[in-house]
Design goal:
This protein has 267 residues and is an alpha/beta fold. 37% of the residues lie in helices and 19% in strands. The longest helix has 17 residues.
């Protein structure tokens, strides 16, 4: 049976991040993708020029309508933009605790534009973190959620991952791409276990939407019943291929997208 995954996030009309990336990644990883929009953005590979928010009540309506009719096997939450939208999303999913929820704390676009209002950070931390099965922050996002300095070592990554677990998520995938050096290690942190995923840094400008893509692939694999460790490994392998093959695309002149269907195409 093909699992169903609901993404709750903002739109990226250039197709590299947001809902568009989520739908591609979920589909490429063997699940049926559904989408509830929290915001429309005007953006391309060079940056974000505008954001139009969806009213919180309509965000709620989208989500509850899906759950009323369709079996949901996993949820991915991305851009929530405001405190009111964060509260609306939390209320909409809180009665579905048996469904894996992957929370990607989208705060800043690749080009530097803020995608989360300051008061929304508190709402995200207070309302959504306790509901999350998986939290997938990069190092600046993890630090911002905790109100501390960005981790610069593996020990600090682990400490911050454990601190985030204490706020509610059952597992935290600390993404180490912001560390200095030739490696880009990620650490899956739970209160009981640490699992390191080693990887060499891929030198490329085609990294637009990698966080959205990874969290959506992770949700798809959790929906299929994989363990956190196996789901993470599968999602990371998928994203690595998507980045490595991104040169086959010709999309924009800034931070280009990953190749979401590279795992399905032979060259």
């Amino acid at each position: 049976m093909i699992p169903n995954v609901l993404s709750i996030a903002g739109s990226d009309p250039s197709g590299g991040a947001g809902i568009q990336a989520d739908i591609k990644a979920i589909s490429a990883n063997g699940a049926f993708a559904m989408a509830a929009l929290t915001a429309l953005t005007a953006q391309n590979t060079q940056g974000v020029s505008g954001i139009h928010l969806v009213p919180p009540a309509f965000v709620t309506d989208q989500i509850t309508t899906i759950f009323r009719d369709i079996r949901v096997d996993a949820v991915k939450i991305g851009m929530i933009a405001t405190a009111d939208i964060a509260a609306a999303v939390a209320l909409s999913v809180q009665d579905h605790s048996a469904v894996p929820i992957v929370l990607d704390p989208v705060m800043i676009a690749k080009g530097g534009a803020a995608l989360l209002q300051p008061d929304a950070v508190v709402a995200l931390r207070d309302h959504l973190l306790p509901l999350a099965t998986f939290l997938t922050p990069n190092l600046p996002e993890a630090a911002h959620l905790l109100g501390v300095q960005t981790a610069t070592t593996r020990d600090e990554m682990v400490a911050q991952g454990l601190a985030l677990c204490a706020l509610g998520p059952r597992a935290v995938l600390m993404k180490g791409g912001h560390l200095d050096g030739p490696d880009s290690p990620d650490c899956l942190v739970t209160p009981q276990h640490l699992t390191w995923f080693e990887a060499k840094r891929i030198q490329t400008a085609n990294t637009h939407g990698t966080g959205c893509t990874l969290s959506s692939a992770l949700a798809a694999h959790l929906a299929k019943g994989l363990s956190p460790q196996h789901a993470t490994a599968a999602a990371k392998a998928y994203v690595a291929t998507a980045i490595e093959q991104a040169g086959a695309l010709s999309v924009g002149s800034g931070h280009g997208p990953t190749h979401h269907f590279a795992n399905l195409i032979s060259y």
